[in-house]
Every structure is written in structure tokens, then in C-alpha cells.
Amino acid sequence: MHWFSKKPIQPFFGGKNLPSPPPPFSSSSSSSSSSSFLRFLKPLSSLPFSPPPFLPSSPSISSLHLEPTSSKFIASSFKEWLSSRDPAIFNVLSSHHGDEGAAALSRLHLRLSESFVLQVLAHLRSRADVLTCLRFFDWAGRQRHFHHTRATFHAIFKILSRARLMTVMLDWLHAFSGHHRIRFHDTLVMGYAVAGQPDIALFLLGKMRFQGLDLNPFAYHVLFNALVEQSCFDAAEVISKQISMRGLDSEITSCIRMKNLCKQGRIDDAQAFLRQLGSSGAIINKRIIGVLVNALCKKKRFNDACTLLEEFGQSRKVPTAPTYSLWISNLIDAGKVDQALNFFHSKKKTEGFVPETLSYNKLICGLLRDNRLAEVYRLLAEMWEAQIAPDKVTMNAALCFFCKAGMVGYWVTPNGFSYYHLIKALCGDGSIDEACQVFEDSLKQGYFPGKTAFQFLADSLCRDGRLDEMSKLMDAALQKNIKPISSLCVKYISALCKAGKAEEGYLVPCKFNRPRTTVLKSNDYVSLIDGLIKLNRGDAASRLLLEMHESGYPPSHKLYRSVICYLCRTANLQQVLNILDMHLPHEQDGGAKNRHIFNYFIDGAGQALKPELAREVFERMSLRGIQPNMDTNILMLCSYLKSECIGDALNFFNDLANKHEPSNQLYNIMIVGLCKAGKPDHALEMWSEVRERGMVPTLHCYKELVNVLCTGGDYDKAIKVLNDFQKTGRNVSSFIGNMILSHTLEKPELNRAWVQSSALDGEELMLGQLVGTFSGGIRVREHLDSLEEVVEQFFQIDIFTCNILLRELTMEGRMDYACDLFHRICKKGYRPNRWTYDIIVHGFCKHGRRKEAERWMEAMYRNGFYPTFSTVGKYNYMKIKGE
């Protein structure tokens, strides 16, 4: 049984059903002389290839059986075609290095020219062979009678940029800047622009202009394009105007302007610009439509892109082959394989569309993902018949095809190198099951594909979250004494933690006899510790916390809190103190460096509601001669208040007050803590003391005081606090305003208390006007169509304010006004929440308006909200009653 999946997979080294070829026909292939390089100077798409000795004859792979001899014949024919894809110069470049490579190139007697160098660089770039590009560029620059041009420099700059070798490129440009005359600034401007350094490019342009020099048209357009790529739209607009002022406008300028509009997301302006070019009779670059089509596809506007293609395809004003290739590529990326295939065949038949290698590769890879092997087979044969040169992508696709077709035994000779390429091709195609099968077959055949193939497959399994297969793969590597690199171990551990298997992740480094400290980084420790806490493995989490600290990765405040809280929940207080002792000996520089660790432990104990543990840590801090700072005192005070140990909190506060005058921050913490503990009298006494000392409590402090007093119905004291709050000159917050509005609408006692207070003080403040305005409820209010505007005169409203008004309207049966208020707040930018919808549905149910209730309930579900239990009960009762 296959050890990577539950279902057995067809062995790769065997036969499978494929369309049988007709009898082979003879064809003379073009002969070439290895000494004459001119034959290879032709464009790569027109290099001579022999037609295949077979043609696809059946649309179905599964309907015909193919004999092993025929399978071998087809596989060897494809192999011969793909192996002949590179002319002699590229074989020399790939097989010779250093002085030997230079001598081999010289023996070819090449006639170097700008077009030839550009062609060779383009082909090497398509193979992602950056090092060979650099070797050839350097060799060409050393030959007599040839000097690199701005175009060749631009080509090598683009290759380095796409390979993300920015450091190499910038060092190169820096070296050039000191050894060339001033005219070489043109090339430097292009180089820095392509390297993603537009500021330096613009600086050099300014330097040239200061000396009375200017860029040539080619360099201007390179700079313009680079500014657009870097999203420097203002600078790009300036350069665009400079190009127009100098009369350098061309079809390339229009193409870059199109890219500028698309990159800014101005798709409609880009479409208008294209049609303006078409109507003016200007020459349209062959890539300009492709830029717009690509932008439309990224916005998922495939219908608009299709309409644009048909419009300009029928006009025949623009070469459409590159655009068609780009359209096919976007369709494949969007998963529209059938639409892409139909478009491909339709344009070939009706317009004589000649596809590029890219189009074939995209289609083949898309079909391979869907296991549509018959169509892949036909496309590969079609490429051969049309003499379209294959590239590395075609090679990998063909490998994948023969793997899926069960003919890989006829395609390659089994060895570690061939297994490596098979696994890489299958993983790149997303065929992970087949890649696992190849890996298993290689082990059975006695070959190990190598560390790189192992890492490639393991990375794919981790990315897809296939942890069982990954575990088996790791075991197989362990048997071969293969140790995965640290980055792969980290990915595996991270995947295990995300899957809730942190305990297995904890053991991964041990399995490969590698210290965790050499594998894990700071984020990995955090993931493991969090995962172990969720699995109730606090002992392992505490060991990792100490290990993380010793490895030079300081654990965060939050991480200490998580571990300490868990240990406290399990009543393992002594272990917390032991962990504290183990942390401290590693700090050799005295109290200042140890203090933050004590603070973390005090905070963790306070969060776990263990004030006695926090006090023990605090005492140990004093025994070690470390003076508590303000943070320490605040954390200790908070630990008492959170546990509602009010007496201990007051004693601790008084001890601090006896040593030095308490700060405003300490007073605020005490007041807020007392309010949350339900001790309004103590809090009010502390507030009075603060005001007598001339301090001003924080807004949070006032909010908690007013809330606890209003909740307890002590409106006289609440009004006293509110009057003092308004005298501080602060604006009424939404929280306080909503609280006063809610109590005013619900309880008339607040209005009576406010009237008495105004009579005694002889003045009425803004909050008093709010209470007076809404004291009678909204049943007597005029202008019910603008309630929120009335409230806005007193404080800044929010969605909670709107919910209060909606609830009052529904209680009074003013459902139409409630709906109008809902629509008004939406127009003003407020986002309704669950309670907003629930209030309206509840109101309709209460008043028996079934249809409206059903409509609003559906709107509630559409927006991702669910009604409360009370509203569901009323809704169901209304429906039963209506039936």
C-alpha cells in the first residue's frame, strides 16, 4: 500500500493508455554546421526542428491501449525534440566556464552586434540563467570591434532587476560612475531607474541638465517607465510632459502612459485614452492593448476585456498576437481553462493567430492541473509540428505529462538526477500525490533524489498542510540520515502548531538530533509556547520560555503573562517562583536589568487573580535590593484591585502615600479599580481627594464614576461629578452622552435630580439641557424625522446613540420613523451592528407587522448578523399566531 495516500496510485514506470501514433513518416531535418554560428543567429522561434514522427490520432487517452514499444517510441521522440532546443552557443555557455568558456566562444567566430547580443540575453533570461547572462555580457564587452550600447546595458539591468540582484546591480553602477565620461550618465540614469532607485536617476538627470546635456529618447522612456513601475506618479507626469515638449512622443510613450493610468486604477480613463488613440489614427504599440487587458483581468472585469479584444481584433489596426497570449494567460490564471482553449483554437482558425511558446506553456500547465492528458498530448505535438521552440517550462510540463501518463520509464533513465527533476516538475504543477509516489518509487529503486528534491517536496506538503504525509517523509529522510535544513524544520513546526499539534512540533528538533536553539527563532518559540498552553502542557511551555530567554530572544510581556496565568490556573504557584529564580541568575548587571522580569511576573500573577503570589514576587524583589519603580507599584496595585482585595489595595496605596505624594496616575488607577469593584463611596472619596489636590482625573476615570453612580441610582452624586467634569473644559464623550441619554429616557428620577441641582447651583450646563430635552421621552417630541441632529447639538453621536433612539422609537410604535432613522444613519456613514437590526425586527414583531419583520430578518442574515434569543421567540410566536 502506498504510504502517502489511502488510494493506490498507478506506478510511474509503466505503460498507460495513450493514443497510438500512425506509421512514422520520413522527413529530412535541416542540417547545420557546428562551425557556422550564423545558422543560430535566426530568431529562436524560427530555428529548424524536424517534424515529429507521429501525430495525435485520438481525442481520448483512456479509450485506446498503447503497446510498450509505441510508448517507448513516442517518449524517445519527444525527448529528442526537447533535447535539441538549444543552439551551439548556448551549449557552450552552459558547459564551459572561465577562460575555457571564453576560448570556446571565441572559436565560434561570432559576429557580435547589438541585435545578436540582445537575442542571446533574451534567450538566457527565458531560462532564468542569470549567471550565464553575466558571463556572456562580460565576454562580449571584452571583444574587439564591439562596445555595449545603451540597449544592451538596459537588457542586462532588467535581467538583474528581475532576479532581485539589486546589490550586485548597484555596486556595478557605482563602479561605472567613476570610470566613464559624462555621456555615460545616460546609461547610469537607465541603470538606477531599472534598479528601483528613481531618486538617484532623477539626481543624475538634474546633474546632466545643469551641464547642458540631456537624455536621449530611449533613456527618457526607460526613466518614464521606471517611475511608473515604482508608483512615483507625480514625477512620472513631469517626465511625460518633458518627453512631449521635446517632440519625443511615440507609440512607446503611449504604452507607458497607458500603464500609468492602469497602475493608478484609472481603468475607465485608460479605456478612453485607448479609443482616443484609435480614433486619431495614431500608431498603436502592439503591447498597449495587452496592458489594458491585463489591468481589466486583475479587476475581474473579464467581459470588458473580451469586448475590447473583439473590438480591436476586428479593426486589424493593432498586432494582436501578444495581446491574445496575455489574454490566454489571464484566463488560465483565473481557472477559465475551457474558455482559454476555445479562444486559442478559434483565433488560430479564423485569424491565423500564431501562438508563442508562452501561450502553449500556459495552456499545457492548466490542462495538466485538470489531468486532461489527451489535450496536453495534442498541444505538445502541435508545438512540434509548428516548429515552436520549447523552453524549460515546456520541458517540465512534458516531464509531468509523461509522469501522469505512466510513461516516465521510457522518458528518463531512473537515477537520482531524473527523480529530482520529476519531483520538482510535479510539485510545481501542484500534483503533490504524484510527487510523493515518485519519491517512494525512487526509494524502492534504491535512489535518493537528493536533499534539494526532499526539501522541495517537504515544502509543498507543509504549504498544503498535509502533516501526515510530511511526518512519513521526515521518517523516510531520517532512515537515510538526511537532516532537513532549519528553515524547513521551522515551517514544519509552524504547520504543526497551527494544526493544534504543538506537542509534536516540540519534539521535531529532537527527532533529528538538533538543538532547538539552532533551529527556532523568536516567532517559532512564541508559536510553540502558545500551542503547548492550549494543549495544557504548561510544564513544556515554561521550559521553552526559559530556553527562549537563554537563547537571547527576550520573551515579551504578553508571553510571560500567558505562561504565568496558565501555571496559576493549575495551582502551581511554586513552579512560578522557581521559573523566576531560574531567570534571574542570567542577569549579571544588577537590579535595573532584573526589574522588568519582576514586573512581568507581578503582572502575570495579577492577571491570574493571585495577589498573594504577586506580593511574594514583590517581596523577593525587595530582598534582592531592587527598588520598585512606578510600573511595579501600579502593577501591584492593579493585582489587588482586580482580585477585589479592596482592603489590601487601600493599605498598599496608603503605604505609598506615606513615602511620597501619590501621582495622578496612581489616583486614577485606584478610582477606576474601586468603581469596577462596585465600591462607589470609596471611589468618590478618592475623587474628592484628587480634586482637592488640584489634579484633574482622566476621562476614563470620569466615565467609570458616572457609570457606577448612575447604575446604582445615585443621580445626585452623578450630577455632581458631571458638573465638575464640564467645568474642566472637556467635551462630552459619546460614552457619557449615551449613558445620560439612556437613563434620561428610561428613568424620570434623573431629570428631577438635575432640576434640583440647577436650582441649588443657579446654573444649567449643556448636559442639563440634554436631560431636559429628552426627559419626557420622545412621545412628545416634535421633528421626529431629525432626532439624531437634536442629539448632535450636545455630543458626538455614534452607532450606540442611534440604537438608543431606535429602541425608544420602536417602544413607542413609531416604526416608520425608526426605519427612516436607520436609512439616514446609513447615508451618514454609520455601520449598523447586530443590535441595530435586532431592535427593528423586535419592534415589528412586537407590533405584529409580519411581512416587515420577515424582510428585516432577511436583511439581518444577509449582513452576517443573528437575532437575540428574545427576538427569535417573538418572531416565532408571531409566525405561529399568523398561521
TrEMBL record:
PPR repeats lie at residues 356-390, 415-449, 521-555, 594-628, 663-697, 798-832, 833-867. GO terms for molecular function: mRNA binding. It comes from the Eukaryota. Gene3D superfamilies: Tetratricopeptide repeat domain. InterPro entries: PPR_rpt (IPR002885), TPR-like_helical_dom_sf (IPR011990). Residues 13-34 are annotated as: Disordered. Keywords: Repeat. Belongs to the PPR family. P subfamily. This is Pentatricopeptide repeat-containing-like protein isoform X1.
